[in-house]
UniProtKB/TrEMBL annotation:
Record-listed E.C. numbers: 2.6.1.1
GO CC terms, sorted: mitochondrion
Molecular functions (GO terms): L-aspartate:2-oxoglutarate aminotransferase activity; pyridoxal phosphate binding
Note: In eukaryotes there are cytoplasmic, mitochondrial and chloroplastic isozymes.
Function: Important for the metabolism of amino acids and Krebs-cycle related organic acids. In plants, it is involved in nitrogen metabolism and in aspects of carbon and energy metabolism.
Protein name per Swiss-Prot or TrEMBL: Aspartate aminotransferase
GO biological process terms on file: amino acid metabolic process
EC supergroup of this enzyme: transferase
Amino acid sequence: MRPRFSSFVAHSSSSSSSSSSPTDRRLNALARHLIAENSDPSSAMAPVSASPTSASNGLDSVFAHIVQAPEDPILGVTVAYNKDPSPIKMNLGVGAYRTEEGKPVVLNAVRKAEQLLVNDVSRVKEYLPIVGLAEFNKLSAKLILGADSPAIQQNRVTTVQCLSGTGSLRVGGEFLAKHYHERTILIPQPTWGNHIKVFNLSGLNVKFYRYYDPETRGLNFQGLLEDFESAPSGSIVLLHACAHNPTGVDPTPDQWDQIKQLIRSKSLLPFFDSAYQGFASGSLDADAQPIRMFAADGGELLVAQSYAKNMGLYGERVGALTIVCKAADVASRVESQLKLVIRPMYSNPPIHGASIVATILRDRNLYDEWTVELKAMADRIISMRQQLFDAIQSRGTPGDWSHIIKQIGMFTFTGLNSQQVAFMTKEYHIYMTSDGRISMAGLSSRTVPHLADAIHAAVTGGV
């Protein structure tokens, strides 16, 4: 700092004879005062380091003991992908829909709904209630349970707006940890990695039930039934409503019926995670059928609902938690306690994304346009499955790859092991989670051949 002030004084002094304005004189005096103060050893002003952190290397920080956390196993794939300069790289890790050109998409129905909201000058930015936007909650319950649901007609349902699917799971988990008599929750093996953390931090005891059979690359239905049978009575059971993540393997309707009967006979409490309604098969009703099957028998259940995938509202964080109870007065008390969970967590949810959803769900034209776009997204993913299967078959890649077209939804569990995945990343610049899960939405007709080549090389001796 001193040379800068000295230079300033020297310049000011040399020009003082030619400049005698009051402003110049005040600046000259201030500069001389600062130099004198900084050069005086007895000055009370301590010298300021330009970079105090670099001077101490952070060793005097109260957080110096903290170690670098690993990247999230799913989101970390994108971090690695972004660092790769290769022009042929592919990101098949994160579950977000892409067009045939590999671009993110905003649905036309969403853009139109947003325009309506922008043009409505009566809208304000006041806080929502703790439970969120009332119209959004009502319409979300109807979308997932069906407009003619007896539970809705009998007022046995409470729905609260939450922060997408993750936030809905967390609120539901904390509510159960506080008010439900059993703290054990069974989740499928494997499942979405965040389920474990969400429920552990909610205060629940996480255990697994068998779900995926690596040999058949399908459902281990017998193992699932045995684990439900041996579970403590009253245990919570997490169920993927459709398009199981990460495997893409779903029970058949008959298997769902057997699962329901066993869950009810054992007094287990079903907690559905519905992240892909309409996005899996293209039909909103078909993808909600397992949930409606459970709601129809008069029993109780929870549903965490997300609009990230089916409306493309990823960053808006729009979701809902619905709890179906046995009586209207119970539902009212449950809602009162849900408020006590939400209030100290995030106080109340954001308004914009929920308003988009409510606008689309209440407007028949927008709703119809949305369902057409939704089916188009689902159909493109189904097409990618068929194209990848055909490409692998045409290369004569060893093994049975029919699971690619049998599985459903955004993800395919390829059956590739971690060594094969690492080989494909290193040699072909293809990024996916180490368990071999790929996002079909990240594929296009142009990139399918590259992926098929990589899979063939990995399977036939690349590792």
